[in-house]
Design goal:
Layout lengths: L16 H15 L2 H8 L6 H13 L18 H13 L7 H14 L2 H12 L5 E4 L15 E5 L2 E9 L9 E7 L10 E7 L5 E7 L5 E14 L3 E2 L5 H12 L6 H19 L4 H33 L7 H24 L8 H6 L7 H15 L10 H14 L1
Parallel strand pairs: 1-4
Antiparallel strand pairs: 2-3, 3-7, 4-5, 5-8, 6-7
Helix pairs in contact: 1-4, 4-8, 5-6, 5-7, 8-9, 8-10, 9-10, 10-12, 10-13
The protein binds flavin-adenine dinucleotide.
């Protein structure tokens, strides 16, 4: 990709939520390409350039990485401002912001990185010049992440990495991976883990695709065979990776409830129900109305809960379970909504070919069949939401342990 100009620095502005939301809405309406908006609304496959183009439009406006500190290239947005921004983007059917660079390794680098590491990588994260993936999980180390065994052995001014990472989303698009590797076997498994930045073009790396239930290649298994990584790519000290991983995981879950997308999806579900009503017997209609309002009540509660926790965290309070509660409530609601949507769409929902989603904008099918792509995407890919970022079972363990301790 060609070098990009540096956008003008802007002073942080006071946050008037209503005015800011209107500004974001207008920006999304004007700057998001109609083709990309149609893809998001219809649950079609988004290519890497769809994300990059949108992220760059945000960056040019000064709204990409805006929650980063000013010294790192951000605008010091508060949690509430970032939340309002994400919600409005989702309501306007913008692609989600891919978190591995801007929301994960970026904050790690400006918090724990050396001045040289910050200079080398932060600007390219903000301009989406460098695409990152997250190499944490491994075969045998998912929920129990600290059991990871991908080994990095020091050899002069390099580490030699051997092992494998599993479920690495978008590794096939990535220039860089931020990885957890084992540099030592300690008395506790959390010891001896190191946070390492790996250039994906290094000889010895193989990326094997994994196709998920929706029939699309999102994720991968990555193999390392004597991969030489400069020691200068360690973030923090050798063996300090677990502390950094915990910092990063807590950030990963801040906006996990993803209410903007659910509010937009609810609008689409209501349109499907309105269309279905014309052909429903009255009894079925009443059952559908009941189920729909139950989902609406859960969504309203989730929106309120998210506000509550954002206010708590903004005030420096943390009951230790907020992120887990939002993760469980949000991901399980998404699945329930997609199940209801599929049922409401009736027989048309069964007619789904993953190739339709990848065909993207060229999909010229009649409305019921076109909607089936959006529904099946949410229904099939949505199964992942209770797994990645920590499974529902593990989140419930965290909630129970904290409440029982209290
Ligand atoms: C689509 C997708 C994308 C992903 N992307 C990435 C990525 O980009 N980078 C990355 O590093 N990882 C990624 N992951 C991995 C994800 O974080 C793990 O799948 C997740 O942490 C669960 O680990 P596991 O798959 O090894 O399951 P396991 O940990 O083996 O769990 C199997 C089952 O056992 C249950 N279980 C495990 N431990 C307990 C316990 N203590 N108590 C009760 N139940 C338990 C789990 O809830 C689950 O039902 C992705 C996963 C998916 C599905």
């Amino acid at each position: 990709m060609s070098p990009l100009p540096t956008p003008p620095a802007a002073a942080p502005r006071p946050f008037d939520e209503a005015a800011f939301r209107a500004e974001v809405r207008a920006f999304v309406a004007a700057e998001l390409s109609p083709a990309t908006r149609r893809k998001v609304e219809n649950g079609l496959y988004l290519a890497k350039h769809d994300y990059v183009d949108w992220q760059r439009a945000l960056w040019r406006r000064g709204w990409f990485g805006a929650s980063w500190p000013g010294a790192a290239g951000g605008r010091d947005w508060s949690l509430r401002q970032e939340h309002a921004f994400l919600q409005e983007c989702a309501l306007g059917a913008a692609p989600m912001i891919i978190p591995y660079g801007v929301n994960m390794v970026g904050p790690v680098l400006y918090t724990f990185g050396t001045a040289e590491q910050q200079r080398r990588w932060l600007p390219d994260i903000l301009s989406s010049q460098t695409w990152w993936c997250q190499g944490y999980s491994e075969p045998g180390a998912g929920s129990d992440l600290a059991s990871l065994s991908t080994a990095a052995v020091k050899d002069g001014d390099h580490y030699v990495v051997n092992g494998s990472k599993l479920w690495t989303t978008e590794a096939h698009w990535a220039d860089m991976m931020h990885a957890l590797v084992r540099t030592e076997r300690g008395t506790r498994k959390q010891q001896g883990i190191t946070f390492l930045l790996i250039d994906m073009k290094t000889p010895g790396i193989t990326v094997e695709p994994i196709v998920t239930l929706d029939g699309v290649h999102h994720t991968n298994q990555v193999f390392f065979d004597h991969v030489r990584v400069p020691a200068a790519n360690v973030v923090g000290a050798e063996g300090d990776g677990w502390r950094i991983a915990k910092f990063l995981l807590s950030r990963e879950r801040t906006f996990i409830a993803d209410t903007g997308n659910k509010l937009r999806m609810m609008r689409q579900i209501r349109a499907t129900v309105a269309a279905a009503r014309a052909s429903q017997a009255p009894a079925q209609d009443a059952l559908m109305a009941d189920a729909l309002e139950e989902l609406q009540a859960r969504l309203t509660a989730l929106v309120e809960l998210e506000h509550f926790y954002l206010d708590e965290w903004s005030s420096g309070r943390d009951d230790g379970i907020g992120a887990s509660v939002l993760k469980v409530a949000g991901s399980e609601l998404l699945q329930a909504m997609s199940e209801f949507w599929r049922d409401a769409h009736g027989v048309h929902a069964a007619c789904y070919d993953p190739a339709d989603r990848v065909a993207g904008d060229g999909l010229a099918a009649a409305e019921p069949w076109r909607q089936a792509a959006a529904i099946n995407y949410q229904y099939l890919y949505g199964r992942c939401w209770t797994v990645f970022g920590g499974t529902s079972e593990v989140q419930r363990n965290i909630i129970a342990a904290q409440l029982l301790r209290a």
